[in-house]
Amino acid sequence: MYAQMVKTDVARVRSLDEMDPVERGFQERVDAGQKIEPKEWMPEGYRKTLVRQISQHAHSEIVGQLPEGNWITRAPTLERKAILLAKVQDEAGHGLYLYCAAETLGVSRDEMYEQLHSGKAKYSSIFNYPTLTWADIGTIGWLVDGAAIMNQVPLQRCSYGPYSRAMIRICKEESFHQRQGYDALMRMVKGTPAQKAMVQDAFNRWWWPSLMMFGPSDDASVHSAQSMAWKIKQNSNDELRQKFVDQTVPQAKYLRLTVPDPDLKWNEEKGGYDFGEPDWEEFFNVIAGNGPCNAERLNARKKAWDDGAWFRDGLTAHANKMADRRTASKIAAE
Ligand code: 3HC
């Protein structure tokens, strides 16, 4: 598979014959399904790809807290409030595991935050859309966490050990997130006509952005071929998008919702749905920083960083004081 001559950001995927013995040994281990661990030799491109993907993933988790956090104080019942609070806290935890996994590749947490705040590092396009009603919260759990699981289950088999292990725990929590979202919507669609309409409206607004979460179509995906050769990714963007549509449409039918896609049609021959093309112009516009909430999200993250400066300074001062004390007592003992 690694021998396919597909153009990627590293020009193209090279065959084993073109690699020097060290790199060939690395690729053979990856092909054999062995995990690569932090202190082991790895190609620089492999390291950089992982830092890019894992840090973007971590940023997505913590930026993803913002649209839902917006509804914690407005949840309709105490039970829903407690569930949402737990979910939003889980996302912070996911961010932490992922930042730790990225740090094992030699990048510091401060560098990653700097890249997020300067706009150099991306985070998932999905979090640049507003949460207008309570139905948006159920819909995010169902669709956004559902899409995240579809993408992240294969990442549990990623060739890089720390990322793959972080994903195992994250996937368990994400499946709770998805079920709580679906449960909230089931309750609403059994409610008043206004509640049902609210769910359909949220579904209409989140359907296409959820499909965009899987990234551009395969022919426009610059990193996929090399990432799949390195077994960082196991599936292409379009493969996962198709699986998501096939899984989600029956769930929408169960909720008696109409999928907002006139081209959606069951295709008996392929055993899956045919569906319309997402608006890729909108997608590229959002990831370029021009979505409805990009500025708001980044400003919230930067404010949190600035507001936390006194705390980070306090921690550093305390750590320095402890280090000085240890040095002084070592000198005294000599
Ligand atoms: N949002 C923002 N940027 C995206 C994107 C999206 N939905 N999809 C692709 N891109 C970016 C890529 O990062 C890349 O930009 P870069 O070169 O500046 O990094 C460019 O578009 C080209 O896309 P590729 O298909 O070539 O990129 P990848 O091979 O990296 O594939 C991916 C994109 C499928 C998103 C992959 O990076 C991936 O699987 N990442 C890990 C999962 C992840 O980040 N999930 C975030 C979802 S939200 C979440 O998990 C929170 C949960 O609580 C819901």
From TrEMBL:
<dbReference type="InterPro" id="IPR052703">
    <property type="entry name" value="Aromatic_CoA_ox/epox"/>
</dbReference>
<dbReference type="InterPro" id="IPR007814">
    <property type="entry name" value="PaaA_PaaC"/>
</dbReference>
<keyword id="KW-0560">Oxidoreductase</keyword>
<dbReference type="InterPro" id="IPR009078">
    <property type="entry name" value="Ferritin-like_SF"/>
</dbReference>
<dbReference type="GO" id="GO:0005829">
    <property type="term" value="C:cytosol"/>
</dbReference>
<dbReference type="GO" id="GO:0010124">
    <property type="term" value="P:phenylacetate catabolic process"/>
</dbReference>
<dbReference type="InterPro" id="IPR011881">
    <property type="entry name" value="PaaA"/>
</dbReference>
<dbReference type="InterPro" id="IPR012347">
    <property type="entry name" value="Ferritin-like"/>
</dbReference>
<dbReference type="GO" id="GO:0097266">
    <property type="term" value="F:phenylacetyl-CoA 1,2-epoxidase activity"/>
</dbReference>
<protein>
    <submittedName>
        <fullName>Ring-1,2-phenylacetyl-CoA epoxidase subunit PaaA</fullName>
        <ecNumber>1.14.13.149</ecNumber>
    </submittedName>
</protein>
<dbReference type="Pfam" id="PF05138">
    <property type="entry name" value="PaaA_PaaC"/>
</dbReference>
